[in-house]
Batch of 4 targets.
Target 1
Amino acid sequence: MPDYDILELSGHKAYVYQVTDSTNTRLKALARDGESHGSIAAAYEQTSGRGRMDRKWLSRSGLGAWFSYLIRPEPDTVPSEKASDLVFVSALSMARALSDFSVEAQIKWPNDLVIGGKKICGIMCEMAQSEGFLTWAVAGIGVNLLGCSFPPDLPWAASVESETGVKIAPLDLIARFLPHFDNDYRNWLENGLFETLQNIAPLSATLGNRVVAHLPNGEITGIALRFRSDGALIIQTENGECAVAYGDVSVRGVMGYT
Ligand code: ADP
C-alpha cells in the first residue's frame, strides 16, 4: 500500500502524504524514477523538513503548506548553474499566490517570504545535473499558514494567520501557487532571470534597507541597492559596491535585526 494519495491539483499530479520525512526527499526519489515535470509532493506533516544547508524546517501537522515541485527541463537546455534561479521564481510565484488571498508578503533575498518582518515561508532547491545541464530540480517550499504560536527557538517565525488573521487551507494555497509557477517558470525559460528579478524588486524586503551579509570570511555591511542580472545582491558599502552571490543576509527591520 502506498503511503500517499494521488490527487490532481490545478492540472498537476500531486502525491499527498499524511506524514512523511521530507517532501523533497520523496520527490527526489520519484524524480530519479523518471517522474515528469510539474508533479508535486505535499504532506500534512513532515518529520524531517529541511531548509538550506541541512537546517531543520518545522512542519507541524495541518499548520502549513509543506510541498515540493519537480522541474524537469528539456534535456541539455538549462545550464546546471541556473538551478539556483528557481528559488527566485518560486518566491515570486508564492508571493503572487498569497496575494490572491489578499495576503501581501515581502521577499527577503534570496529565499524567504516575510510578513511584518517575520518569516512565514522558506524555499530551497536541490538538483541533479548531467554534463553541465540540469536534469531535474526539486524546489521545496514551506509556508506557515495556521496557528499563532511557535517554539522559543524560532522567535522570528510567524504564520499567515498570526500576522494577518487570514486562514488559508494548505492545499488551496498550493492549488493557487501552481498556475503562477507555471507562468513564471515559462517566462524564466523564455526570457531569463531579468524579468523575474524586476517583478521581485517591488516586493523585496531587502532592497533599500541596511543589510549585513554574513560570509565565510567576514561580514559586509551597507545598503542593499539592486539585484545583479544573475540574482546576486549589490550592496553599497563604505568602500564601494559589493556583490553577494549567496549566503545569509540580515535586513534591518526583519527577523530581529535592528
Ligand atoms: P535561511 O533563512 O537561513 O535561508 P532556511 O530558509 O533554509 O534558512 O530555513 C531554515 C531556518 O529557518 C532554520 O534554521 C530555522 O531558523 C528557521 N525555521 C525552521 N522552521 C521554520 C518555520 N516553520 N518557520 C519559520 N522559520 C523556520
Target 2
Amino acid sequence: MGLTVALTKGRLADKAIDLFVRAGVICPAMKETMGEAARRLIFSNEDAGLSFFMAKAPDVPTYVDYGAADVGIAGKDTLLEGGRHLYEVLDLKFGVCKMVVAGYEKTRDRLRYGNNLRVATKYPHIALDYFSRRKQQTVEIVKLNGSVELAPIIGLADVIVDIVESGVTLAENGLSVLEEITSLSARMVVNRASMKMRRSHVAELIKKLKHVLTLEDTLWNAGPK
Ligand code: PRP
C-alpha cells in the first residue's frame, strides 16, 4: 500500500508540487492538474505509490494526526498553532516568513512592558503562548480569520500577531514589526504510526526530497557571490 500525502491549498501548494516534481515523484504532466488554480482535490501517481490531496492549511495536521494522510506538507505556523503530535522530519526551505507582533510604532513601549493589551490574530495559541509563557504579560486575544492588519487601524486591537513575508501589507497600512516571535517555513510531517508501519516508504520519500534540497542548497552556495 502506498503513501497518502496531504498538501496545503493556496500559497504553499505550487511550491510543494514543484518540489515533488524535482524529486521525481510527480510527473510534470500531473502538475498541470494539481496547481493552485485547479479544482480537483485528489491525485494519484500509482507508479510512485503516492496519492495526494489538497486541504485547507489548518486541516493538514488534523488529517495527518488521524492517519487519513501518512505525510503532510504544512507551514510551521499551522503546525505550531495546531499543536498536534506529529513527526516533523524536513524543513522544505520554501514559504519562508516570520511570525511577528505588529502595530503602530506608538504602541512599542506599551507592548514591551504593559499588560491588558488586546491582540488580534489568526493564531490564538501562538499569540497566547508568546505573551503569557515567554513574556509573562496578560493580554486579551481576539481571534480573526484574515486581513488581521485591519484590527489596529479600525481600533479593534492594540497589536496583531501575524505572518510577515515581504512586509508590503504592513507597510501599506502604516504598521511596523514591533517584536519577532519566530521564523517559519514549510515542513514535512509524518503520522506517528506511519513512521513505524510504513517506515521504508516514508524513508524513501524523505531521501528523495532531501536529495533535491541538499543539491539545490549546494548549487545556491556555490553560485556567484
Ligand atoms: C498573510 C498574512 C499577512 C500577509 C503578509 O495573509 O496574514 O496579511 O499575508 O504578507 P506580506 O508580508 O508579503 O505582505 P494572507 O495573504 O494569507 O491573507 P489573509 O490575511 O486573508 O489570511
Target 3
Amino acid sequence: MAKKIGVLTSGGDAPGMNAAVRAVCRTALQRGMEVVGIERGYNGLLNGEIVEMNARTVSGIIQRGGTCLYTARCPEFKTKEGVAKGAEKCREIGLDGIVVIGGDGSFRGAADLSSMGIPCIGLPGTIDNDISCTEYTIGYDTAMNTAMEMIDKIKDTAQSHDRCSVVEVMGRNAGYIAVNVGVAVGAEAVITPEKDYDLDAICTKIQNTMKSGKNHFVVVVAEGVGKTDEITKIISEKTGVETRATILGHVQRGGSPTVRDRVVATQMGHHAVELLEKGIGNRVVGMKDNHVYDVDIQEALSMKKPFEEELYGILNETAF
Ligand code: ADP
Ligand code: F6P
C-alpha cells in the first residue's frame, strides 16, 4: 500500500497534463496518501526539485495548458547510473511510487525505475497520439482543434488570393494529427510519414479541381515527412498555382485543453493512483474501446499502432 507518491511530467508538454496532475493529486489525497510534485521531469528527480502538494496546489489548473510541474528532457536518466540515482532519491524522499506523464521515452524511464523497486505508472501525454498501447493520448484533441482553427484562418486568405497553402502540422513520426485535421478542414491532400505519396498525382488533382472552378487549395503535411518546403516548391512549379508554406509549430502544443482532454486526463490520473494504492507499478494507463485500462510497460512499448487507413481513404475520396 502506497503512503506517499510523486507525480512528474516529462518530454514534450501537452494540453491536459495539468488536469492529469490535478487528478493524481486529488485522488491520492482523497485516499489518505501524501503527494509531492517533481518538477522538470527526471531532471527534477535527480536534482531534488520536489514540491509538497495539497488540494489547493492544484486549484485553477484544470483549464490551463502547459504543465505546472514544468517538463524537461533528461539524457542522464537514459543511463544505468542515472536511474540508480533516481531510485536512491525516491528512497530518500520516501516515495512509494511515481506517476509519470509523458510519451514512450518517459515510459522507458518509468520501466527502468520500476525495475529498481520504485513502482511507476505511465500516463500517455503527447499531442501526437503516437503511443501504441492507447487509442488516445492526453493533448491530442486540443492540438487538433488548434490546428483546425489555424488552417481555417489560412484558408480565408488562400481563398482571397487564389493560392494553395501547404500547412505543416506537428507529428514527429506520426500522421494522426495530419489526417484528422486534413479531413476536418477539407484539405485536397494529406501527406504523412506512414504513407508513400505521389506529388504528381496531387498536382493533377489540383489542376482537375481548378477545371471545376475551385482556385484555392490546402495540402496538410505532417512534420515527420520533413519535406514541407520541397513539396511547396514542386506544387507551385507543376500546377502554376501560387503556393505558400506555413509551419504551425508550437502553437499546437499550447492553449486551454478541450473537454475531451480534461476528462480523459482526469480518468487516467485517477486510475493511476488506484494502481499505486495497491502497490502495483510498471504499468501504462491507456484507452481501449473507449475505456481506461492498464498494461505492462514493456508490452506497451512493443505494441504497434495501426495507421488510420480508412479515414485516409475517405479524405482522398471526398476532397476535390
Ligand atoms: P517522450 O516521453 O515524449 O517520448 P522523450 O523521448 O524526449 O519524450 O523522453 C523523455 C525523457 O524520458 C528523456 O529525456 C529521458 O529522461 C527519459 N527517457 C527516454 N528514453 C529513455 C530510456 N531508454 N531509458 C530511460 N529513460 C529514458
Ligand atoms: O511529441 C510532441 C511534439 O510536439 C512533436 O510533434 C514534435 O516533433 C516534438 O514534440 C517537438 O518537440 P520540441 O519542440 O519540444 O523539441
Target 4
Amino acid sequence: MDTKKVGFIGLGNMGYPMASNLLKAGYTVYGVDVNKMNEKRFAEIGGNIGFTSATLPSEVNLIFTSLPTPPIVESVYLGNEGLVENGKTSLTLVDLSTVSPELNKTIAKAALQNGTQYLGAPVSGSVTGAEAASLSVMVGGNKETYDFALPYLKAIGKNIFHVGEDHGVGTVVKLINNLMAGIHTQAVAEALSIADAAGLDHNIVYEIVNVSSGQSDVFRRNYKNFIAKDEYYKGAFTTELLLKDLRLANYVSNSFKTKLPLGEALVDYFESNIKGYEDKDMSTAYLMLTEQKVEPAK
Ligand code: NAD
C-alpha cells in the first residue's frame, strides 16, 4: 500500500486546512464530508473525493477524522457503515476531534479487536493554526502507532506530544486546555463590557493588558481576529463547540471527583444565553454579554 495515500473525514473549519496541508506536503488525500460543498472545494485544490467511511479504509493505511461532536464521531467509527467495521490490519485511525476520553477508549477497544490501530489525537491552535500547520497535537495511544503516524502529524502540526499509552489521555490534556480557553474567553467578554461602560477604547485596553498580567493568547485571538473586526464567522471555533468542550471538561472533572466552580458556572451561563450565538466564534461571548436585554428594575 502506498504510504503517501491518506484519508481525511470531516473537511470543516479545521479539517479542510489540515487536509490541504497534507496535500501540500505531497500526500494523495482522499476527503470525505457529509456536506458535499466541502468535498467539492477540496476536489478543487487536488483532493480525491467520492468515498465514504465504509469504502475509504480499502484505499489507504491511515485515516484522520476531524468531526464536530461525540455522537457523530461514534457513528463514523462504530456505526454499521463505520471505519472499525470496515477496517483492516494495516489501517491506523487517528481522531483529531475533541470527544470524551471514554469514547477514545471505547473506539480503541473496538478497533484493536478488529486488528486496526487507533490514536486519540485532539488538536489546539484554532483555524489559523490549522492553516499554518502549526497546531499542537496531544496524542494518546500505543507508542509504535504514534511513531508510524508522526510523519503525517508533522504535516498538520508543529508541537506534537505523545502523552501516554492510554487512548484518552491526550483528550484529558485537550479538555484542560479548552476549560482554560473558555474561562479566558468569558474573562475577555467581561473585561470589555466594563471597558464599554467606562467609555474606554478597546484598543487602549488591549494594548495595556497585552503587556500586563491579564495578558493571554485568548485575549489576542478573540480581540484581534474577531471582536475588533466585528466578524464572528470566518475562522471560527464556534460557541456551540466550546460549550461541548466545557461540558466534557466538567464530565471528566466529575469522573475524577475534582471541583470546577467556574467551569460549572460557565456551562450554566452558556446554556442559558447561547441562543442566537451557537454558530458564531467563541469570542461572541462578548456580544452574548453586552447585547443581553436586561429587564429594567420595577
Ligand atoms: P466543523 O463543524 O467546522 O467541521 C466538521 C465537519 O464534519 C463539517 O464539515 C461537517 O459537514 C463534517 N461532518 C459532520 N458529520 C459528518 C459525518 N457523519 N461524516 C463526514 N463528515 C461529517 O467543526 P471544526 O471547527 O472543524 O471542529 C472539528 C473538531 O475539531 C471538533 O471536535 C472541534 O471541537 C475540534 N477543534 C476545533 C477547533 C476550531 O478552532 N474550530 C480547534 C481545535 C479543535
